[in-house]
Design brief:
The complex is a heterodimer of chains A (91) and B (307). Chain A has 91 residues and is an all-alpha fold. Chain A contains 2 helices and 1 strand. Chain A has one domain. Chain B folds into 2 domains: 15-62; 84-301, MetI-like (MetI-like fold). Classes of the chains: A mainly alpha (91), B mainly alpha (307).
Chain lengths: 91, 307
């Protein structure tokens, strides 16, 4: 079993954490609206409003995923630049 | 000579000018600080009055004779204790004492369960590194934002089919779901600010991670735990919506009991007795805060770590 790592004392907070929190909240409501839409469709109730709301949440979720990917790319680029600078300065 | 005296005079003039500027800067700074503190004091007074005035009005009305219920005199007039007698007596079908006991049981159990799960969850979210941690936090945030009224009908149907209507667990379970996100979020922010060097020192001294948590972190987190406990208890104590639908006379909470207060005359709204009951209901919360006031000291860990 993989052992869960304890965060080191001086570790800076992950810059993606804020986006992750928003992803979780939007995803939570997205799942809720998905269930409501499916149940409305199956039972023959009017599902248009629920479906449109679900669409809005899906778009928001996708937008947040794009933002997260951009942050990840930026962090990776910064890290590799720092590593390269470190290699150059070392004798 | 004049060539030497010239720069010396200029230097003296410059230093005098500098000194004047420093004095002016000091004066401006002092004036700014004074105006800031005045603004803070005025804001604090306005906020305190804003929060305390309704409570003051409740106390004044609770001690006023029924015949003068709508008297707008802002201080105590026509003083009487009758409203408290009416509120606490069971002759008119009001059961405030029983409702207080029910609220205490429901609030107490909710608080204990929330703390039990909330402390471990918050520690893991603040300290451990695992995948999708942020998303778990987001789901907790989403659950806390969920409107309670949307849960009312499903809960009623579910608890009816389980035969839980009029039982304590029918209120404890939804209350936990509302108070647990609050508990987790409050404790996560506290655990994050905690000096982890203490835990590391405990680990170096031979403690396991669980022992370090139990012997070092938990005692240090006591102020946050007590603050969170009070918040969770108040959230459960003030809950009305779910309690109004899922309780019977035997298990009704104080909020429901007060809402259903009846007067001595038919169609009479007993405002003064309701105000008296409101005061009685607020007293346990005030006592709770006063008891744990010493524990709720911010910055208990300040000075624990140097450097």
């Amino acid at each position: 079993m993989k052992r869960i790592r304890v965060l080191p004392n001086n570790q800076a907070r992950d810059p993606r954490e804020g986006v992750d929190v928003m992803l979780g909240a939007v995803g939570f409501f997205g799942v809720g609206f998905f269930v409501i839409t499916v149940v409305s469709e199956i039972t023959g109730a009017d599902a248009l409003g629920w479906a449109l709301t679900l669409l809005a949440f899906v778009i928001a979720f996708a937008g947040l995923l794009v933002v997260r990917r951009r942050i990840t790319d930026r962090v990776t680029a910064t890290r590799s630049a720092e590593e390269a600078a470190g290699h150059r300065s070392s004798p | 000579m004049s060539a030497i005296a010239g720069p010396a005079t200029t230097q003296a003039e410059t230093s005098a000018l500098r000194g004047e500027r420093t004095t002016t800067a000091h004066k401006v700074g002092r004036r700014k600080r004074r105006s800031q503190s005045t603004r803070t004091i005025v804001s604090a007074i306005v906020i305190s009055l804003w929060c305390l005035l309704p409570f003051y009005w409740m106390i004044v009305t609770s001690f006023r004779d029924v015949g003068y219920t709508f008297d707008t005199t802002p201080w105590f007039t026509h003083f009487t204790f009758d409203n408290y007698v009416t509120a606490l007596s069971t002759n008119l079908g009001n059961h405030l004492g029983l409702a207080l006991l029910n609220s205490l049981i429901i609030g107490g159990v909710t608080t204990v369960v929330c703390l039990l799960f909330g402390i471990f969850a918050a520690y893991a979210l603040a300290r451990l590194d695992f995948r999708m941690k942020g998303i778990v936090m987001g789901v907790i945030l989403g659950a806390s934002m969920f409107p309670g009224v949307a849960l009312l009908t499903p809960l009623f149907q579910l608890f009816t089919s389980w035969g839980w209507i009029g039982t304590y667990q029918a209120l404890i379970l939804p209350d936990i779901s509302f108070a647990l996100p609050l508990t987790v979020y409050t404790l996560v922010s506290f655990f994050r600010e905690m000096p982890w060097d203490l835990e590391e020192a405990a680990r170096i001294d031979g403690c396991t991670q669980a022992q370090a948590f139990r012997k070092i972190i938990l005692p240090l987190a006591a102020p946050a735990v007590f603050t969170t406990a009070i918040l969770a208890f108040i959230a459960s104590w003030n809950e009305y919506l779910i309690a109004s639908q899922l309780t019977t006379d035997a298990t009704q909470t104080v909020t429901v009991a007060i809402a259903g207060f009846t007067g001595s005359q038919p169609h009479q709204e007993p405002y003064t007795a309701v105000m008296a009951a409101g005061v009685v209901v607020t007293v346990p919360l005030v006592i709770l805060v006063l008891i744990f006031q010493r524990r709720i000291v911010a910055g208990l860990t300040a000075g624990g770590v140097k450097g």
